[in-house]
Amino acid sequence: MTTRSRVALRAAEARPRDPERFAPVIVLSPGRSHSSIVTAMIGSHPDLYGFPELILFDRPTLGERLDAGPRLGKPRPGWNPVPGLERAVAELHHGAQGADEIAAARRWLEQRRAWSGADVMDHLLELVEPRTGVEKSPDTVNGEACLGRALSAYPRARFVHFVRHPVTAQRSLQRQLLLYDRPIPCAKAWLNQHRRILAFRAQLSADQSLLVRTEAVLNEPREQLRRIAGWLGLRVDEAAIDAMCHPERSPYASVGVDGERGGNDPAFLRDPVPHAVELPPTLEHPKGWLIPEELERDIVDLAEQLGYSAPAESGR
């Protein structure tokens, strides 16, 4: 029996877990933060393993996650609450993500509905050893309870806080949610989620969290990726950084054979090659957005705290 088969067999058995065993890299990022491509870049380091979005900390049990509908609107035909998780299980159990492998992964997950998200994550982390797993799910930052589950499950985890310029992040969220005429909810979402992440990071030791401006990674990839790898205590030789510059080589950097599978931002799945991005010349919102003055001021203040300036300087 192979090591992978033995791990899969033990996974079907109930067993106590040790929160100290694994120390994954957990990305804290609101949606629309260039998080899919930058997480894939980090996870392409030879000593890391970049997962797709697993969404394992927003509910107490796997069954509750499997039964969850979308955060906005009602489930549509074919709605899949865990496309990234299915892809990861299929890839790590069977080495492929075809229709048969995805169906087998779905059955495996259904048989473990009573498991916690940490139980599932432990199983995946065991499968990728000796590499360290890297995971990003925007749902993790949607509430204090989700963040608390992540920290309780992995007290030795390293947390990387992604941030994107408030104007471009909000514009992207408006497009995603079709809220072109309602910019205020998007503005509040950017502000509240980053405030929540900062409050969470305040609980951590100084060396347990890192702030990353995603535009800087896309515009200065080698310098920024070397900084991140060094912070994680990993090798920073040219071969390692070269690997990080090619997230398109990830087994999760495509839409899947059926054209439907997700697990990451659809734009990344369609074009996983990194591209430089432009930064707005100011932190002020476009006049047509009609953002209330106090909300505008709070966003500008927080953006400056996160390292942005007006005019912005290459994301530094």
Question: How would you describe this structure to a colleague?
Answer:
The protein is α/β, with parallel strands linked by helices and 316 residues long. 45% of the residues lie in helices and 7% in strands. The chain contains 14 helices and 5 strands. It has a 5-stranded parallel sheet with strand order 2-3-1-4-5, with helices on both faces. Helix 4 crosses helix 5, helix 8 crosses helix 9 (183-201) and helix 9 (183-201) packs parallel to helix 14. The longest helix has 19 residues, at 183-201. It is globular and about 55 Å long. It starts with a helix and ends in an 11-residue tail after the last helix.
Instruction: Figure out the total of helices.
Output: 14
| Share of helix, binned | 40-55%
Q: What would you call the structural class?
A: alpha/beta
* Main beta-sheet annotation: 5 strands, parallel
- Count of extended strands: 5
Spatially, the strands of the biggest sheet line up as 2-3-1-4-5
Low-confidence stretches: 312-316
Distance from N terminus to C terminus (CA atoms, Å) equals 51 Å
Series of H and E elements: HEHEHHHHEHEHHEHHHHH
**Beta-strand percentage?**
5-15%
Using only C-alpha atoms, the radius of gyration works out to 19 Å
The dominant shape is globular
Mean model confidence by pLDDT: 91
